[in-house]
Design brief:
- This protein is 35% helix and 18% strand.
- The chain has 15 helices and 26 strands.
- The strands form 8 sheets. The protein has a 6-stranded antiparallel beta sheet with strand order 14-15-16-22-18-19, with no helix packed on it. The chain has a 5-stranded mixed beta sheet with strand order 12-13-17-21-20, with no helix packed on it.
- It is globular, with a radius of gyration of 24 Å.
- The two termini are 22 Å apart.
């Protein structure tokens, strides 16, 4: 970033700053005593706290973290931890066998087997796609092409659907020929549905026809044959369908929505919207999601929230503009509140004496996990220790660290978008771009400032639904010329919530003000109720308060937004997911 861009900016949420924090956690999770394999989980409530390895350490964790590193570096320009990243990439490429699939390694201290897990393969193609998109490395494309060909080769193919009949593929093929013959296809959403998203992006980047074909047949299987989603859009909560597991279901909806946009298939968008709206009834307005509909219902995964964010963005891009506001609430609240920045409450050890190398470490856990996202959180607490469900299990998961980073990126990259000369400000968050900078004074003041860097043929800015119309004011300054306009003018609104500012000129400063909403809602989460106080789209108090590391109740609000010296990242060329 150019240091000349430094200026006084509001001291409010800046997603690229959060990405710098999560980089520390991604790097800190590396286990230097175990081949730099990242730890998968952490228990922060124990004294001392500890990190643990698990069977997700391989294709899943490495894939998620490599993807996250690429996205976080794109957001920040930060170079720290390149040595650890190179270890992750080296490990990751070492998991592939000649058949093109990524296999888990055998840990002599643990029972998991060295198979090619189908959930892992989704993280693998995700990382390969981001890796190739960011570097254009032809060697990585060769690995990815071979991987996609393998995913196609092992799929069971019927007339109109393809599927995987088990969670594990072995070097000798599928574990059970009988499972294939009976068309069992356990958990199609986890094994096939979520694969559609990275496969589609890989096709868009490379034109790989195998990737597109997999998307086509997996989509048909999910919608027409799988039974994952009930006719009313609800999740099938049968035990065979993982009790309606939210992460894999909403992740599948994200994939279907993207495929629908690509193919211009309105029927699929309708299918996604119906199910997404049902899912929202199980979530809080600030973004807490259940883990599933039964035993894991109390355990929110950051992964599920990021799926909600991504699906909501695609629905908004498809014309359902009301979802921009829903997603902004998720970004402002449970995503960023779930990021671990204060670790004063964590007790850890400065010694490795108690470590069991390859399984567990107590060494500097707080320092190594700062910036991570919650693995299982309660609506009001980083740690979930509910009387219901499974009680306390763990507090961090590497998959959620990777997903949380992706959530930051999805918010950041969609705050300002451009299409055919129209620039849209979709989220009222701090963000720099080659067209303009957005400085957000929310939640302190209903005030947004736009500094225009280059001529924009047509500029749109979304105004929150709670701000109304009549008291929205626009002030445009260029040189000595000042023009004001009131939101009560009906001719300046489109898409329900967007102000049409028309042409914006280089050097112009536009200030938009509107009244802030202060309100109270009752949010329900798996039978529990939470009294929620809002200021605009931000939760400023939640009752009852959490017991271990409470959420929301330490947010400070001022009459005027505090300012600080800072800068926004501006890129001449960005990539998008």
């Amino acid at each position: 970033m150019n240091e000349n861009n430094r200026k006084q900016i509001p001291d409010t949420l800046l997603l690229e700053e959060r990405a710098r924090h999560v980089l520390d956690a991604i790097i800190g999770m590396a286990d230097e005593d175990h081949g730099y394999i990242p730890f998968f989980g952490a228990n922060l409530m124990e004294q001392p706290a500890f990190l643990t390895h698990g069977d997700w350490d391989y294709g899943s964790s490495h894939g998620r973290l490599i993807d996250a590193l690429i996205l976080a570096r794109h957001m920040t320009g930060e170079e720290k931890g390149r040595d650890i990243e190179s270890k992750y990439r080296e490990n990751f490429l070492g998991f592939f066998k000649e058949d093109g699939l990524s296999y888990r390694l055998k840990n002599p201290k643990a029972p998991w087997e060295p198979t090619a897990n189908l959930i892992d393969q989704r993280a693998v193609i995700l990382a390969l796609t981001s890796w190739y998109m960011s570097t254009g490395d032809r060697k990585i494309k060769q690995v990815a092409d071979k991987h996609v060909a393998a995913l196609k080769r092992i799929a069971i193919k019927e007339r109109d659907v393809w599927y995987y009949p088990a969670s594990e593929y072995t070097v000798n093929g599928w574990p059970s020929a009988n499972a294939v013959q009976l068309r069992l296809a356990p958990d199609p959403a986890a094994f096939s549905g979520r694969l559609i998203m990275p496969l589609l992006k890989y096709y868009e980047l490379t034109g790989n026809s195998d990737a597109l074909e997999l998307c086509q047949y997996f989509t048909s299987m999910i919608i027409n044959r799988s039974g994952v989603f009930n006719p009313d859009g609800s999740f099938n909560d049968a035990l065979a369908y993982r009790s309606g597991h939210f992460h894999t279901r909403i992740g599948t909806l994200d994939a279907l929505a993207r495929y629908a946009m690509f193919t211009k298939d309105a029927s699929i968008i309708h299918f996604v919207k119906k199910s997404y709206d049902w899912a929202l009834t199980w979530c809080t307005s600030f973004g807490w999601t259940p883990g599933d509909i039964h035993d894991q219902a109390f355990e929110h995964e950051t992964c599920s929230l990021v799926d909600l964010i991504s699906t909501g963005i695609t629905l908004a891009q498809s014309g359902y503009t009301e979802y921009w506001g829903i997603v902004e609430r998720f970004l402002r609240n449970h995503l960023t509140e779930s990021q671990l920045l204060n670790l004063d409450w964590v007790v850890d050890s400065d010694s490795k004496e108690q470590d069991d190398v390859g399984l567990k470490s107590f060494f500097k856990v707080a320092e190594r996990t700062r910036g991570a996202f919650a693995g299982y959180s309660a609506p009001n607490d980083f740690c979930c220790d509910s009387n219901g469900g499974r009680g306390h299990t763990s507090d961090l998961q590497t998959c959620c660290i990777g997903s949380g980073t992706r959530g930051l990126f999805m918010g950041w990259s969609n705050t300002i978008t451009e299409e055919n000369g129209t620039v849209s400000v979709n989220f009222l968050l701090n963000r720099g771009s080659r067209w303009l900078d957005v400085s957000s004074h929310l939640p302190h003041e209903g005030r947004i400032e736009l500094d225009i860097h280059r001529n924009v043929p047509r500029l749109l800015v979304r105004i929150p639904e709670w701000a109304g119309y009549a008291k929205v004011m626009v002030r445009r300054e260029q040189g000595d010329t000042v023009i004001t306009q009131a939101g009560s003018d009906p001719s300046i609104w489109v898409k329900q919530r967007f102000l049409v500012l028309g042409e914006a000129r280089e050097g112009e400063k536009i200030t938009i003000t509107f009244p802030l909403s202060q309100r109270q809602t009752v949010e329900k989460a798996v039978g529990e109720e939470f009294i929620t106080k809002w200021r605009g789209d931000d939760v400023i108090h939640l009752s009852p308060a959490g017991m271990h590391h409470p959420f929301y109740n330490n947010r400070q609000i001022f009459d005027k937004a505090p300012l600080r010296d800072g800068q926004y990242r501006r890129l001449d060329k960005e990539f998008y997911w």
